[in-house]
Amino acid sequence: MTWDNWATVADLATALGTLILAVATFSAVKSANLTAKIAQQSLLVGLRPVLMTSRRDDPMQKVNFGDRKWVRIPAAGAVGEVGGEEGTRGMIPGPDAPVYLAVSLRNVGNGIAVMHGWRFYPDWHRDDEHAPLEDFQRQSRDLYIPVGDIGFWQGAFRDAADPRYEVARKTIEARQPWTVELLYGDHEGGQRCVSRFTMLPRNHESSVDPAGPATDPEVIKSWAATLSRHWNVDRPDPR
Known about the structure:
Layout lengths: L2 H45 L3 E3 L7 E4 L5 E4 L3 E6 L16 E9 L5 E9 L15 E2 L5 E2 L4 E8 L5 H11 L4 E8 L7 E15 L9 E16 L7
Antiparallel strand pairs: 1-5, 2-3, 4-5, 4-12, 5-9, 6-7, 6-8, 6-10, 10-11, 11-12
């Protein structure tokens, strides 16, 4: 072979080696990216909260609204009350009395749930889509629900001039179904979800005073909480 032929063979070998190295590098980078993506997804799953109604055997929760108003939320239930501090049972609320709402919840996901906001509906709301995010009312206090544990959501209408106040008050006083959509995410501020809960009225009897006559019952007014739908905000929907 002439010198020119050897040079051509050397060039071809060099080109082939470069091509093989490029393919190997591309495969390694692609594999690394896939591994990193899987690791990121696993991390996000480990931080992801999912809210449901609490179970019927979960304990009752006593919740304060910051103005000497306390409510007791039954397991798998909700509370809707108009006005009145604890100890004022039987008093007629004034015309500007606040409307207090609360729901007992359980976090069945893998991450801490942090509440961001809520949207109230004065009926059994059944739209296919949740309310626009700008329509959600921001929580006035941080609410956290631990992993695999119970917690609660609470909200109130305190301003009688708010157009939502009168509608909410009439719904609660008439003991009609009501719905609330909750916006929440993980403790890093991501993976936001919207879950819709509908409250249906129920009555049961209990003693007014445990130390008093057992035959002196009163009707405890509360709502049964039901979950109807979840939506993902920051990732594809599950359906």
